[in-house]
Amino acid sequence: MEEKTNNTADGWIEKLIRFFKHMPRKKPDAEQADYTGWHQSEAQYQKEQAEWQAQVAARRQKKRIGNGKEQK
Fold it and tell me: What distance in Å separates the CA atoms of residue 58 and residue 69, rounded to the nearest whole number?
């Protein structure tokens, strides 16, 4: 019975691998690429990272039940 389970799982994995290998790929349009960050300074990078982290922290705080308050 264990061999049957392994064969089923192996078959499913093979199908999944085949699916992803044959999945159509869409290459990004090079004309719309944003290369502005290539020449940014370390200070600019750190500022953008701090802003992004603040946004993530705010979203996480909203997702938490009761925003840190005790549940009733």
Answer: 16
pTM of this structure: 0.41
**Six-digit token string for 39:** 């020449």
Rounded CA separation 59/65 (Å): 12
> At residue 17, what is the residue type?
I
Element (H, E) at 41: none
> What pLDDT was estimated at residue 48?
93
Q: How far apart are CA 32 and CA 27, in angstroms?
A: 12
Of residues 2, 56, 27, 26, the one with CA closest to residue 64: 56
At 35-71, the pLDDT tens digits run 777 788 999 999 999 999 999 999 998 887 765 555 5
Cβ distance 67 to 61 under 8 Å? yes
